[in-house]
Request: fold
Amino acid sequence: MIALRPILYVLGILYVALATVMLVPAMVDVAAKNADWQAFVFSAFLTGLVGMLLAIAVDGSLKKGLSMRQTFLLTVLAWITIPGFGALPFFWLGLGPADAVFESVSGFTTTGGTVLTGLDSLPPGILVWRSMMQWTGGIGVAVMGIFLLPFLRVGGMQLFQSESGEGGEKIVGRSVELIRLMVVIYAGLTAACATGYYLTGMDAFDAINHAMTTLSTGGYSTYDASFGAFAADGPAWVAIGFMLVGALPFVLVIQALRGAPLQLWQDPQVRAMLALIGIITFGLTVHLGATQSLGFFDALRLAAFTIVSLITTTGFYLTDYTLWGGVVVGMVLLLAFVGGCTGSTSGGVKIFRYLVLLAAVRSHLRKMVRPNRVTAETFGKTRLTPDLSSAVLVYLVLYTGSVAAVCLCLAAFDIAFITSLAAAASAVGNIGAALGPLVGPDGTFGALPDGAKWLLSGAMLLGRLELIVVLVMLDPDFWSN
Reply:
């Protein structure tokens, strides 16, 4: 059996850290003279108490580190339990268990779907807490994508072991040092984003909140209308830039800031993502100019913002894009299956998996023409092995199957098919943006039945854990010696 004491110790430390973070929105409410600070203090006390008791009870159990199986289990337990504690402040607002857990899971997984309405009039503390959930979840996603998933060989992620291991291309000698550097740069980029928002017309409160949910590609806003609440054009362009930064491989962002910007352009997935965004943005700009009677720059701003928000899985919006015609609705549904780059804060399938799939298809077609031909497909400088290609194909099948299964389960609640499909793709891909009158840009997930919310909460966690991490734990061999 797996030794649980080291896992419980790490979980205890994480709960104490979460309790400390909860005190920030409490201080915001105190400054605003809002009585809701009590919700965060109580939640912090309960979370911190559980964390300290766990850490003290199993103190000294981490001296030998964690094995691979322990790391698997720790990852799953952390992503399940932390949103559970994070839901506690929402009970103060009168939310039921399904709504509170959904909002918390959506926040920490940086999905961005919400059950709340009237955001414009909510207490400042709860708005800050929503933003901080996505900000902390974002750095957690990036760390998991760089240090954990490659070594767990999840869905072809072993391709990126050289970026996080002790290979020749490492940018920092030790993982701990790199994580520390990631947090510092993540905070610095957030501050730069907030400054950009402030200089283009947002007040300080909105600028800080939107900066946290932009860099994390989470998409929570302080307004029901999202970025449509801001009259100036400047914040939209700032958001476009920093949403793109959030969807880039974080290791390469660090390299760029340390004097090697060409490393970004040399990454095939970065070039592919930027090319895809450019092509679709151009097409949508032309479409909007022809059908919505918009000038070129207005059409370009709307198109670029919408496409970047969708592909990076952020979920911000300027207006209801479902009113732009059926072709745009179909495009939105397709883009829900794309995602940003590996090692970023974004969700979705990830660009690199499509590149590996295209390489595998190209190799297969070449062998059909010349059966004896030896082909060597590559991803950048790395040769694609059959094992890696099959891992990606397995992941894509599981991903598509998961979306289909969640869609069918949602349909069992008498939810319209397009809404069920869009909500399923949004949850499994951690996208937030969806379609339909209930969960589209002008709607919320609050109108769904509680059973559907529990289902979608599980789907969001499954998607953030890259599916296979959870499925591996269902194998009896995982628990044996």
User: Anything to note?
Assistant: Residues 159-173 have pLDDT under 50 and may be disordered. DSSP finds 21 helices and two strands in the chain.
